[in-house]
Amino acid sequence: MAGLRAQLAAHAAALGFEAEAVPVRAAGSTLWALPAFGVALLAAALPQLAFLPDPSAPPLAALAALLGVVGSGAGLAAAIGAGLPPFRWDLRDDATLVLRRPSASPRRWVVAHLDSKGQGHSMAGRLVAVWAIVVALLASLGAGVGRAVAGPLPVSAAALVAGLLATAGALCLRGRPMRGSPGARDNASGVVALLGALPALPPGTGAIVTAAEELGLVGARMLARARPALVRGAEVVNLDTLDDAGPAWLVHHDAAGAALAARLAPALSRALGMPVRSRRLPAGILVDSQPLAAAGAAAVTLARLDWRTLARIHTHRDSPEGFALATARAVGEALPAALTRP
Predict the structure, then answer these.
(1) How far, in Å, are 71, 103, 249, 281 from residue 302 at the CA level?
(2) Which CATH architecture fits 2-27+91-120+178-340?
(3) pLDDT tens-place string over residues 165-211
């Protein structure tokens, strides 16, 4: 990764940009957060099967067991995901590149992350796991309250609740880290679009190539903390997963981002020959524009993808074979002009 980052810095220097490397330290262990929560869901299944239909069990036993096991698992997963000691291992030193012209103080930024990751399930699999968690927890909470208020439940209902918890837990466990994702769509496509836009970026516009996005948006978060003046009050367009199929989206997080998306959408729609729609970020997906928006930027993420794209990324199937990068190139050509439109 360091060699690729150096090549990007050299390419930017040839175009008249100065490169600042903002150090990033991230923990690869964060990728175990969802599997750790999966273990808790699996552990919560058996008490539900035992307590919900048992007339001799205390009325609140099933609910207390659920809240205790799942709550402990959520706390552990949060600690792992945040990289807190002692749940912090596989430390990786990297850097986020900030590219700007000499003496410039950009108020617009084009952003793309450089890293990729491999997991046992795809992004689509992660979304399914999140939905399964929601269904399992709602069903379990409802059953626990019902057991406390109305008495024992049928064995079939208890088995259903336990099965939902076990299924959600197994889906989470599939998210364990693995090798083997080339990262062609997520996010070589975003880097290609950024490099295409770089030579024509208008005055007052810079570029940021973030590190450790796949480890919990660490590069963007650390940049927002270390260089808050870079992004506060600025406009940010994050480029992440520009496939050649599916609808195109400008994803926003707040009113400022929604206004920026509305301004950019017409020009990008014309460039891509298709509608570019605006929406809020769906649950279960993380993108670098989130922490930058939280730091005070008007931030959006531009993406083009469909369910087949989601089923590829984070797996070995996210490969360059048959991927022409046509959307990435079109975005790179159109974005500089779109940024300057009122």
Answers:
(1) 35, 28, 6, 11
(2) 3-Layer(aba) Sandwich (3.40)
(3) 999 999 999 999 988 789 999 999 999 999 999 999 999 999 999 99
